[in-house]
Design brief:
There is one protein chain. By secondary structure, the protein is mainly beta. The chain folds into 2 domains: 1-88 and 169-349, no CATH class; 91-148 and 353-517, no CATH class. Helix content is 2%, strand content 32%. The protein has helices spanning 54-58, 287-291, and strands at 10-11, 14-15, 94-96, 100-101, 126-127, 133-136, 143-144, 159-165, 172-178, 184-189, 194-198, 205-209, 217-223, 229-235, 239-242, 257-264, 269-275, 280-285, 306-311, 317-322, 333-337, 343-348, 355-358, 365-371, 396-401, 413-418, 425-427, 434-438, 454-459, 465-470, 485-486, 492-497, 507-512. The strands form 8 sheets. The protein has a 5-stranded antiparallel sheet with strand order 3-30-29-28-27, with no helix packed on it.
Length: 517
């Protein structure tokens, strides 16, 4: 039985899927390693023959493709959201051009103590020491956005997507609210929309799976403005449900691709990419075929399901983050041609908190995370500064380019040396060349370093960060962790916080970077 290395997804205090520790152990799908061909007959919804089988579905999985030949053409760029907000021109926050954010380094930016100010009530403005304004999105009892890697805001910034407790009930609802008024316009019980994601170009629409309540898996489109739902595609037998954790990631930023994994009653699985434009399946990978070919089952747990499956930002690659670490096949983060399923390359051996985005050139797709350790003496940072001994003694924010080489892994490009407390989650949902990081307390080294307990923007050209706010979260419960994310144009930042009260409500808060105190 394969083991699924599950993360914990909690919204509004409701645990959506199970959690396993790093040792794996339970909750996995019952997929067989026997010969199981991929067969997805035309369902009548797709309007195209989407069947494939066996090795054809995996397109000779050990045959490396060429980056220029997959998905979009090489000159494709990250689409720009509507509006005229310019993140480069903001007049709020605390900007630094340093490479090292360590209290022990002379000349590094100074840490800023977290105040014990009370949280702002709904309708109130809280001015931070960083010259930004925090506002509550709801009055409670509990509200959360979904995750750092996910886009909470519609791409025109008209709506925000939350999960909220139903007062007096153990249930929670998925809620669409207006921005900036935060008025509820649409709500449904959590789970009715399976993994809802804002469509990047059809701004009021949410792409999602159905509820897994029956034995038909559907990909659907719901209009937040009207509440109307359209079914785009139905998976034919034998597939009966989608896997929430593996199908959790975002659409491609051009709005064309959604990815995930579906399973049959007997455990037969299909990793897939679905073309929302042509309404047909693209890449189709059978894990049993992979583990019967180029991949080696784990010696203790056997074949492992992926941690997550996603589309690269420009829709070139189907990205599969395997539970096993390493540089062999079905380990670390792999890139496949999103249309054919041909194996293309290997990005990284690990599976840390991370996100995918595009550099400021609009075409280079990258995987952004924290590398430990940072560059060794003789190495350098992206901005050109030579590495020192202290850099190899601490982690560094970094990125690796997609799709990666056919063997080995992409080289890390180091951005900033930090303390461990500078990084818990990262969001690269905003403009090309920018990400948003969430720091947390790290008292182990006896010092408070800059960026701990903070939300801050980082430039992927290595030229500096913009510190935005303290999140005031204890992080003692998963659903109170900030896991900050930001809008496609970078204007709005959203995060969750219990504001120093671990037994109190967790509320979603927003920062409007166009609002000058």
């Amino acid at each position: 039985m394969p083991v699924t290395m599950r993360l914990c997804w909690v919204v509004a205090g409701v645990l959506l899927v199970g959690c396993d520790d790093d040792g794996g152990g339970g909750g996995g799908t019952d997929a067989s390693v026997k010969d199981a061909s991929v067969s997805v007959p035309d369902s009548g919804q797709a309007g195209a023959d989407s069947s494939a089988s066996g090795d054809d579905a995996n397109m000779a999985a050990d045959d490396a493709g060429q980056a220029d030949d997959v998905g979009l053409s090489p000159d494709s760029r990250l689409p720009l959201p509507p509006g005229d907000f310019d993140l480069e021109a903001i007049q709020v926050g605390m900007a630094h051009d340093a490479v090292r954010y360590l209290a022990a380094v002379a000349g590094a930016p100074a840490p800023i103590p977290v105040s014990d100010d009370p949280p702002p009530a709904l309708g109130e403005a809280y001015v931070t020491p960083f010259n930004t304004v925090i506002r509550a999105l709801t009055a409670g009892p509990n509200s959360n956005h979904f995750y750092s890697q996910l886009q909470a805001f519609s791409y025109d910034n008209a709506y925000v997507l939350l999960a909220e407790d139903v007062e007096g009930s153990p249930s929670a609802e998925t809620v669409v609210r207006t921005v900036p008024g935060f008025e509820s316009v649409l709500r449904t019980p959590v789970g009715e929309w399976g993994n809802p994601r804002w469509h990047p170009t059809d701004y009021s629409k949410l792409v999602h799976f159905d509820s897994n309540a029956d034995e038909t898996v559907r990909i659907q489109l719901t209009d937040a403005a009207t509440g109307e739902t359209e079914t785009l595609f139905e998976f034919a037998a034998p597939y009966q449900r989608y896997l929430s954790n593996q199908s959790f990631d975002e659409l491609s930023r051009n709005g064309r691709w959604i990815t995930g994994e579906v399973v049959a009653a007997d455990g037969q699985a299909l990793i897939f990419a679905f073309d929302l434009t042509d309404r047909a399946l693209g890449a189709q990978l059978d894990p049993a075929v992979l583990y019967g070919g180029p991949c080696t089952p784990d010696p203790e747990f056997g074949p492992l399901d992926p941690d997550w499956i996603g589309a690269s930002p420009l829709g070139r690659y189907l990205m599969v983050q395997w539970a096993a670490a390493g540089t062999a096949r079905c380990e670390g983060l792999e890139s496949y041609d999103i249309r054919t399923g041909a194996y293309v390359g290997h990005v990284t051996a690990g599976h840390p908190h991370s996100d995918l985005t595009v550099l400021a050139d609009g075409t280079t797709e990258v995987f952004v995370t924290l590398e430990d350790p940072g560059p060794a003496p003789g190495g350098a940072f992206v901005a050109g500064e030579a590495a020192q001994d202290v850099d190899s003694e601490n982690p560094a924010l970094s990125y690796r380019e997609l799709p990666g080489p056919a063997t080995g892994e992409s080289e890390p490009r180091y951005l900033y040396a930090t303390d461990y407390g500078a990084f818990e989650h990262i969001s690269c949902r905003g403009p090309a060349g920018w990400c948003l990081a969430t720091g947390y307390p790290f008292p182990d080294n006896g010092a408070t370093d800059p960026l701990e307990d903070e939300l801050y923007l980082l430039r992927l050209d290595g030229t500096g960060v913009v510190r935005l706010a303290h999140h005031h979260s204890t992080g003692r419960e998963y659903f109170s962790q900030p896991r900050a994310s930001f809008s496609a144009d970078g204007r709005y930042v959203i995060f969750d916080s219990d504001w120093g009260f671990p037994s109190g409500d967790t509320i979603a808060y927003i920062i409007d970077l166009a609002e000058v105190p």
